[in-house]
Amino acid sequence: MALHFAVLKGNNKIINMIINDLGATPMQSTRNGLNVLHCAAQFERGTLSIESFLSQPNIKLDVNGKDNYGCAPIHFAVMNM
């Protein structure tokens, strides 16, 4: 998904465009069950993306969302410290 790749790269301009202009849903999951928070937690650049989501008043992020393997975003964050 384009949004997930933009999050991995920490590209806030593209993230905002995909959400606001194209109507993407940030909590939509990939085939592996990854949401945008999982992607953001994988790389340091990705964590910069969180700012884009926090600036969107109508977006709710599920910090406890689990992927297909039972991992929440915090698991990725800890593994990549």
| Total E-strand runs | 0
Biggest beta sheet summary? none
**Which second-level CATH architecture applies?**
Alpha Horseshoe
Order of helices and strands: HHHHHH
Q: Identify low-pLDDT runs.
A: none
| Residues in helices, as a percent range | 40-55%
Give the radius of gyration. 12 Å
Oligomer: single chain
How many domain modules?
A: 1
Number of helices: 6
- Return the CATH class: Mainly Alpha
Distance between the termini: 25 Å
CATH topology: Serine Threonine Protein Phosphatase 5, Tetratricopeptide repeat
- Principal-axes geometry comes out as globular
Mean residue pLDDT = 84
Q: Structural class of the secondary elements?
A: mainly alpha
- The fourth-level CATH homologous superfamily is Ankyrin repeat-containing domain
Q: What portion of residues belong to β-strands?
A: under 5%
Can you walk through the features of this model?
The radius of gyration is 12 Å and the shape is globular. It has six helices and no strands. The mean pLDDT is 84. It has one domain: Serine Threonine Protein Phosphatase 5, Tetratricopeptide repeat (Alpha Horseshoe), CATH 1.25.40. The chain is an all-alpha fold and 81 residues long.
Helix/strand layout:
Layout: H1 2-9, H2 12-20, H3 36-42, H4 44-47, H5 50-54, H6 73-79
Helix pairs in contact: 1-2, 1-3, 3-6
Q: What is the structure about, briefly put?
A:
The protein has 81 residues and is mostly helical.
